[in-house]
Amino acid sequence: MYRLQKVLPLRMLWAVARISSEASQGRSREQVERLAEKMHAFAARKIGEGLDAVVLGHCHHPRLREWSASQGNVATATLGDWIKDFSYLYYDKGRFQILTEPPRI
Questions:
Q1: Please, what sign has the CA dihedral across residues 69, 52, 45, 81?
Q2: Is the pTM of this model over 0.90?
Q3: What pLDDT shows up at residue 46?
Q4: DSSP state, residue 83
């Protein structure tokens, strides 16, 4: 796949990414929610070990949770995707935000 990325045109790579994404979206929304909840539970355990923030990808379900803990303000985030949600995690002045960017293609 890495070799193909170097030789295929960008439009074709995006088409392959879109097809791959649609194929994996066969999972129900409930399954995605459960995966996101498991990821946030894992992240919360890591916060309990003293981390200030945990950022996770893969479930493509954008969600940000922030709260106060013994070490101060903490956050966990699961990221969306660039194909369907056009979302990304933004950090500025000690705060996280999930923002979206309109498609440019």
A1: positive
A2: no
A3: 92
A4: T
